[in-house]
Amino acid sequence: MPHWTAPQFKTLCQPHAASLPNGVVYSANEGDGSISEITLSTGDVRTAQIVVLPHNVQISPDGKTLLAVGTSAAKTGGHGAHGGEGKAANDGNADSHSGSGASLLILNASNVEQVLQTLPSGSHPAHVVTSPDGSRAYITNSDSDRVSVVDINQKKIIAEIPTGSFPHGLRLSPDGQEIYVANVTDNTVSIIDTQSLKEAERVSVGKAPVQVAFTPDGKHVYVSLRDEDSVAIIDTSTRKVVKNVSVGRNPIQLYAAAGGSKMYVANQGSDSNPDDTVSVIDTKSQSVINTVVTGKGAHGVVASTDGGFIFITNTKDNTVSAIDTSTQDVVATYPVGPNPNGITYRSIR
């Protein structure tokens, strides 16, 4: 059964607590199969063990449930490195219903140790996003080169959509019509039509795309290129790369904030030489305007609902950093579970 650890407390800048939004941040701690819950109003951090090694978490549109994907905590290895190291050998037709111990957990967002549903995820789930109404979950399966579509009400996989090689990060367009998927090992982004549930196009972007992020107006998609230390920008009307922006070492996740005027890119670096920076791109000029130092192995990125704060998981420091988007200052750092990767935000109204 999952259980909570004793509450912890944030370690930096307590006077800034009142300025933080009234919300909760969740980190997926792949190192020990846990989820940490940060209550921003108090700075309390609680960590719950779950039955998978979560690589990614996603709050539902209504804020009532938390989706977590990963392989069984009883097995070793977890999701593994980005980019296909250790990828299972297959011809692209692997059975994603196979018994790998992987699953999609639906958790009570107000009580994360409560598992509401355990659903199929495909055999090697990496990231998950939901449809705008929360009825469907879209999950990248890195070993079988496809996106699994889970009908949460029917409790089953209803479609499996072929993509490029080693699909990893994915995001839904603001209008809900398309999903962009980063395919790490064939240097492309798949564009999936959410009505037909088919790949509409595949765009070449550069070396080792790991994650994508839409601007709020849906006009551009930013793609982290881990092996080029850069970000490609796709014009969604033409589905072509229009610019490439140099950032820090080995960028992983990225997210728009501050009303869409800025894109935040977490630079993880390597295992032997982790980076600790976040590159801030001005989305109008499409250039880097600032670099923020967070913690070692900067990885996951999410924004508060109002865009006033960005939250970063630091995989090598086992922390989450909060950045004020008006000043670009780190205003708080929270201790979480080991090897935090994915991160998501829930507003409390």
UniProtKB/TrEMBL annotation:
<dbReference type="InterPro" id="IPR011045">
    <property type="entry name" value="N2O_reductase_N"/>
</dbReference>
<dbReference type="InterPro" id="IPR015943">
    <property type="entry name" value="WD40/YVTN_repeat-like_dom_sf"/>
</dbReference>
<dbReference type="Pfam" id="PF21783">
    <property type="entry name" value="YNCE"/>
</dbReference>
<keyword id="KW-0732">Signal</keyword>
<feature type="region of interest" description="Disordered">
    <location>
        <begin position="74"/>
        <end position="97"/>
    </location>
</feature>
<dbReference type="InterPro" id="IPR048433">
    <property type="entry name" value="YNCE-like_beta-prop"/>
</dbReference>
<dbReference type="InterPro" id="IPR011964">
    <property type="entry name" value="YVTN_b-propeller_repeat"/>
</dbReference>
<feature type="domain" description="YNCE-like beta-propeller">
    <location>
        <begin position="122"/>
        <end position="343"/>
    </location>
</feature>
<protein>
    <submittedName>
        <fullName>40-residue YVTN family beta-propeller repeat protein</fullName>
    </submittedName>
</protein>
<dbReference type="InterPro" id="IPR051200">
    <property type="entry name" value="Host-pathogen_enzymatic-act"/>
</dbReference>
